[in-house]
Amino acid sequence: MEPSTDAVLIRRTLAEIAPVADKVTSYFYALVFTGHPEVRSMFPVAMDVQRDRLLKALLTASEHIDDPAVLIPYLRRLGAGHRKYGTQPAHYPAVGEALIGALGRYAERTWGPEAEAAWVRAYTTISQTMIDAASEDERSSPAWWHAEVVSHDPRTSDIAVITVRPDQPYPFLAGQYTTVETPWWPRVWRHYSFASAPRADGLLSFHVKAVPAGWVSNALVRHARPGDVLRLGPPAGSMVVDHTTDNGMLCLGGGTGIAPIKALIEDVAEHGERRPVEVFFGARSDHDLYDKDTLLGLQRSHPWLSVRPVVGDGLAGQLPQAVGEHGPWNSYDAFISGPPGLIRSGVDALKRIGIPGERIRYDAVEELAGAGA
């Protein structure tokens, strides 16, 4: 399809500001906070963590303004997810004004009355979709859940399995993820996948790896203890099992990306299905295959499950390569979870060996969740 006039104008602006994105971001927040100082308290004290997420989300949405199949679900997730920040409909005009002001300042060649009008129309669509989604979500879900840590199980020097008890029912699907805020870093949220299918006792588990300069991950691995109370955002993610088919499942999990894969295995088992499930579990060293015993135990219990550990430094290359040495996989649905590099190389590798793109499921959280991170 030919792009709309608005889409053409918007993409020209995006192309022009790309080399100066840092300046656009800084100016954008300066306009937000000086024009509306009351919203500053909604953001983390240290803005280096949050800095580009809100603007990135707006620009991502604008780039897909001609693609409602991508745009609307994305905006609805953002709108519902923004409730945990305390976002209200009255806040959207302030953000819109700052966005137009920052673009007008730095898109000198492509900016003008027509471009501005296109961006105003795009932002109107974006903001109204998010407001409507938040209003709808408010009728059925809280803005966040409090969750008490009930166990903290260190698996390696920098990986822990953390189990929490939400203060009210928390509905989710195996393979999904949520956002977590700790009491040590207020208003800083990070994504973590659920490490099990929904449980009868309502408990939720996460696999957390402490990463350099990772505020939330280090707090959870090094400091969290039973009795501490976290906050959880709403569940999100589309990497879930389609129980209307009996297709085989090919699962690639790198590092703590094995957590949602484990949840998918449990989901298949609980539904009483006997479809083949092939799991490739990768890590840099055997020591980092921290959940290998659990997975091999599941393999012993379920004859339809096969687990293959893969060890190596070039994880993004070795794990997809190991998958290519087995198969064929053309009748399988594929699921990939792990670092962004692994997801990118894994998707490419799976397409090369014949799995259609529409049957490859993954959640590229950093790219898709935008301001929800």
Structure characteristics:
single chain; 373 residues; six-stranded antiparallel beta sheet; five-stranded parallel beta sheet; 13 helices; 42% helix; disordered C terminus
In short:
The chain is α/β, with parallel strands linked by helices and 373 residues long.
Blueprint of the fold:
Elements: H1 5-17, H2 21-35, H3 47-50, H4 53-63, H5 68-81, H6 92-106, H7 113-138, E1 145-154, E2 159-166, E3 177-181, E4 189-193, E5 204-209, H8 215-223, E6 229-232, E7 248-254, H9 258-270, E8 277-283, H10 292-301, E9 305-311, H11 315-324, E10 332-337, H12 340-352, E11 360-361, H13 365-368
Parallel strand pairs: 7-8, 7-10, 8-9, 10-11
Antiparallel strand pairs: 1-2, 1-6, 2-5, 3-4, 3-6
Helix pairs in contact: 1-7, 2-6, 5-7, 6-7, 11-12
Structure description:
With 373 residues, this protein is α/β, with parallel strands linked by helices. It is 42% helix and 18% strand. It has 13 helices and eleven strands. The chain has helices at residues 5-17, 21-35, 47-50, 53-63, 68-81, 92-106, 113-138, 215-223, 258-270, 292-301, 315-324, 340-352, 365-368, and strands at 145-154, 159-166, 177-181, 189-193, 204-209, 229-232, 248-254, 277-283, 305-311, 332-337, 360-361. The chain has a six-stranded antiparallel beta sheet with strand order 4-3-6-1-2-5. It has a five-stranded parallel beta sheet with strand order 9-8-7-10-11, with helices on both faces.
